[in-house]
Amino acid sequence: MDQLGLLFHLLLVDPMTNVLVAVARVFGGNFGVAIIVFTLVMKLVTWPLTASQYKQSRAMQAIQPQMQELQKKYKGKDPKKLQQETMALYREAGVNPVGCIIPMLVQMPIWIALYQVINLSLGDTPESLVTLSHRLYAIPYVHEAVPLNNGFLLWNLGKSDKTYILPFLVAASMYVQQKLITPAPTAASTPQQQQQQQTAQMMLWMMPLMFGFWTLTVPAGLGLYWAVSNIAGIILQYLYMGRKFQWKSLLQFSPPAPAPALTGRKLDKPRPVRDPREEDNEADPEEVVDVTSPSPQSTRRNRNGKRRGKR
Amino acid sequence: MKLSRKSTPTTHAHNVSRETIAGIPPGSNHRNSTPSESPRRPAGPLTVARGEDPSHTNNVSRETIGLRRRPILAITFLAALALFAAACGAPPGPVGWAGALPIKVDGQDLILVSHKSHLYALKKGSSIGEWQFPPKDKNAYPVSIESSQKIDDQIDQFALDDSAKSDLKRKVADLTVAGPTAGVLKDAIDASGATEVEKSSIKKSIDSALAFEKNALNKPKALYGDTGISPDGKTAYVPTFRGMLFALDTITGNVLWVRDVGAEMVGGVAVNGDTIYVGTKANRLFAINGETGERLWAFTTRGEVWATPTVDNGTIYATSLDGALYAIDQSGKQKWAFTNVGSGIAARPVIVGDAVYVGAFDNKLYSVKKSDGTLNWSFKASNWFWAAPAVQEGVVYAASLDGKVYAVDASTGDEKWSFDAGDAVRAAPVIAGDGLVVGAKNGSLYKLDLATGQPVDGSEVVDLGHKLLANLTTDGDSTVYVVASTAVLYVLDVSGALTAPGSYPLPQ
């Protein structure tokens, strides 16, 4: 374990410390700016993962109409078949309902490392500075960069945030991000779907709450990383999704009730918020059309949507 | 077009049956589900489990497992996150590295030993504690002399006869920081003939004094700075990392006064007659009247002050993490500042003759003219200087975090010798018994020959086996006091070669 910790320090914590200290020095010793720059670079590095996440999200949106078709077709007649076809649809679209977890798992060592970097370089104790003296590389630019400015805006980045702003910001931004990436809940008809949606809904609430809670205890610098990372994520998603970006989906708070009996038409209930401006949106109108009349036109568009999603 | 709509799902269906998704055999199928009943059922495994066909139960359990996989994934993920939280743990708290200080008061020899957040007064050459601070029993700990004096003064203002006043004052003398004494005093005040206004005002001052002092005594956190001692040896000034500055009676350990200086103190207290000087992490250097605790002036630096200031001939020399060495006159005005330093300074400046010697975080040791703050020379090591150097007979002995001790010519800055102590040296070395006593972070102690830099003949390397960061101190003769990370005071006799130290466990 000790060896592992040593390796972790050698390969991750120490390089990160030195890079952050160097970047901080570039910005006049401001560690907050260094963390923001680092966060954005990390966002860039993990872009392939993020992009696949967005793709999935888009694919999920794109297959919604088909899902509804499936439901209409098999609902109450052949649940088994419906489930199978749903799975197949997911598979074909490359959708994994828990796919959003993977980019987070990848980032976890970075969080732990960043936590240690912050404790090391912004640690409030004189002891941590003694330790830092041996962690900084013998490059004058880095080695002479101490002391670092641990103040950034309202926060002491080395201490946990007592203003409650960062925890709130982290929780809120994470909720928004998750909400955007989690497909809007549909009226689940199969147990499978229900389970998935329940899981998704649970994660939707649990994650922001947990991260918000952690932000209360970890140094504010890590909270800043999370907040910036989430906000950058939201912006990236906005840029990626373009006009398909649905602010309104943020307003949907609860998963829809289980499908009422024989009301295929009302399946779209969970998406009641319909902005007229979105009518010409390629993805949205088809669902609207879907609700009113399952016209052939909509299907063609569906498939367009799906193809775009898989691109 | 209608065909195409139907064809898409059908195609999937084929794929599915071939691939057997989610553990469901391709042939299985819910014959029981009729169009009429199915929609009314709440969807979920329970519904399926009601199936009458026993063969279904088998399918169901498999299906259930398949379905539950996702929540399990989510739970695993949350568990991983919890693991992450645990891996982070609590950030390391301050420990403290104030050392030991030998003092003489009323003909008695005491050693004030700081360890973590406690200060112990030991009789010289023993483990017997005269007192410890903060006290174990707060209920028996008297309120500060200053506060009881203030309450006494208020009693003097009462329109009472002298015997009633002295009755009350006796109860003030018994007043402790916590415990029932405050109630006793307040009852006596209530029973006295003072006016209601007087009663409520004095009770208010009692409450606020007790609340403040109780808070000040709670968790001093850690002691880093050198304890300051008044010229008569009767008062010890103790700076805490929590930002409370205590003046203690060195004989009893009782608090004379306590001040909240507003920020953590890492450096110690310098004493110059009646005035004491201390720096804080809030970029301040304070001059305080040692007798009364009254603040005389505050000097603002651009960075945190981490080192004990040095007073020489009425001028205060202070360093700051802003990378400057300041010379400040007695009224708190800056005389000069030496700012030609590449990084912060956390070392105490040492003044010998016309020069100020100070090491910095830019790996350099500086010699600066005392009169105007111009540079004499600088000497470069390969890591920071944190410890104050020792200077004797034209040689500056400075230890660096690079693990080496350097002997540098005081007039030219040329290196005479260096010695590798094996680990970083944060603790200031001392000259004692005609040698230089050095303690490395790993707990190794050396006595070096001043001329050659080699361990004195016949000396053994003393390995305390504990982390050593606190400055070494000497009684000015041949005894060196060392405090490492354990609650033990080590006493080295360095009159000859270095031998195993005497160890005195601190009272618990």
Any overview of this molecule?
The complex is a heterodimer of chains A (311) and B (508). Chain A is mainly α. Chain A has a two-stranded antiparallel ribbon. In chain A, strand 1 and strand 2 form a beta hairpin. In chain A, helix 3 packs antiparallel against helix 12 and helix 8 runs antiparallel to helix 9. Chain A is elongated and about 75 Å long. Chain B is an alpha+beta fold and 508 residues long. Chain B is 23% helix and 31% strand. The longest helix of chain B is centred in the first third of the chain and has 35 residues. Chain B is globular and about 80 Å long. The chains are: A mainly alpha (311), B alpha+beta (508). At the A-B interface, helix 3, helix 4, helix 5, helix 6 and helix 9 of A face helix 1, helix 2 and helix 3 of B.
Which labels suit this protein?
heterodimer, A: 311 residues, mainly alpha, two-stranded antiparallel sheet, 67% helix, 1% strand, elongated, disordered C terminus, B: 508 residues, alpha+beta, four-stranded antiparallel beta sheet, 32 strands, disordered N terminus
Produce the secondary structure layout:
The complex is a heterodimer of chains A (311) and B (508).
Chain A: H1 2-26, H2 31-45, H3 47-74, H4 79-93, H5 101-122, H6 126-135, H7 140-143, E1 151-152, E2 155-156, H8 165-181, H9 191-217, H10 220-241, H11 284-292, H12 296-310
Antiparallel strand pairs in A: 1-2
Helix pairs in contact in A: 1-2, 1-5, 2-10, 3-4, 3-10, 3-12, 5-6, 8-9, 8-10, 9-10, 11-12
Chain B: H1 2-19, H2 45-49, H3 54-88, E1 100-105, E2 108-115, E3 118-123, E4 129-133, H4 145-157, H5 162-173, H6 181-191, H7 196-217, E5 228-229, E6 235-239, E7 244-249, E8 255-260, E9 270-272, E10 275-280, E11 284-289, E12 295-300, E13 310-312, E14 315-320, E15 324-328, E16 334-338, E17 350-352, E18 355-359, E19 364-369, E20 375-380, E21 390-392, E22 395-399, E23 404-409, E24 415-420, E25 430-432, E26 435-439, E27 444-449, E28 462-463, E29 473-474, E30 479-483, E31 488-493, E32 502-505
Antiparallel strand pairs in B: 1-2, 2-3, 3-4, 5-6, 6-7, 7-8, 9-10, 10-11, 11-12, 13-14, 14-15, 15-16, 17-18, 18-19, 19-20, 21-22, 22-23, 23-24, 25-26, 26-27, 27-28, 29-30, 30-31, 31-32
